[in-house]
Amino acid sequence: MIVDKNYGLWILLRETAVPLGILALWDFVVVILYQVYHQEWMEQPALPISLMGSALALFLGVRNNAAYARWWEGRSLWGLITNNCRSFAREAATLLGGRPDLARAMAAYPYLLRTALSNLEQGPEAKRLLTPEMYARVMSRANKPNALLYEIGLGVAEEVALKNIDGAVHGTVDRILSDLANAQGGLERIKNTPLPIQYSVLPLLVVHVFCIVLPLSAVQSLGWITPLGSSLVGFLFQALDKSGRDLQEPFVPSKHALPMLTMSRNIEIDLLQPIGDEVGKPIAASRGVQP
């Protein structure tokens, strides 16, 4: 996720540089044909292109709002993951009377969830945090984050039976695991239910057609400065389309994705520091490609 505004503008310019350069070249061709060779077929009315631009802006706005809603819902669910992981570690220490192995297992959960959502290879974090037996059982399952919650739940039940802990306390801790499972289900829904294909293909196609037709309508009034005006308007539509396509896939590794690695590392630090484990520095969510 980009948090540096100046760097974010540079990223946007760089990602739209190729289509913008092609658009500027086409603008120069149109200007030369009209100003030098006086091509009468280029006398196009301005009203249709204005209507087309208004409709395109409205459509891009609707698509971008839907894409941002997906991105923000994913971020909100990760906030629930963070809060519930912290709550579980606290209650494992205060209500269950210890079990640092369960706190470490919960610290591994966000890492497993992150790799599952992004279809990435498992990193070393889970193996470092889990016991060898638990790691082997979790890695043998298809849904590894859910398998880890199941293993943690078994550990909680074992501790409750061993220490004869009140059932209400068990229910309090188990409710946190249920909230984590619900948040995971929401994240999996976002991943497995993409926006309709027309929200990705149609805006890209129409933006390109609009940018091709735009200088034909603008050259009569702008003359030799058509490349400047047309390129600025074209860049605006290209940027809107690119922003929407980036936001609609919040888990795909990119500079615009949710910073899941940063959040997972912060959760690990929050859970391991109270039990006295060595922790390093957090990972900054800045210019790196995440997750």
Any descriptors?
mainly alpha; elongated; 11 helices; 291 residues
How would you sum up this structure, described in words?
The protein is mainly alpha-helical and 291 residues long. Helix 3 (46-94) packs antiparallel against helix 8 (167-192). It has helices at residues 5-15, 17-35, 46-94, 100-118, 125-129, 132-139, 144-163, 167-192, 198-222, 226-247, 260-272.
Q: Give helix and strand order, one letter per element, not per position.
A: HHHHHHHHHHH
Distance between termini? 9 Å
Q: What is the mean pLDDT?
A: 86
What is the share of helical residues? over 70%
Strand fraction equals under 5%
H/I helix tally: 11
Give the total of beta strands.
0
Output the radius of gyration. Answer: 26 Å
Poorly predicted sequence stretches spanning 5 or more consecutive residues: none
What is the overall silhouette?
A: elongated
From the helix content, strand content and strand pairing, which structural class follows?
Answer: mainly alpha
Q: Characterize the largest beta sheet: strand count, sense, and whether it forms a barrel.
A: none
Helices, strands, pairings?
Elements: H1 5-15, H2 17-35, H3 46-94, H4 100-118, H5 125-129, H6 132-139, H7 144-163, H8 167-192, H9 198-222, H10 226-247, H11 260-272
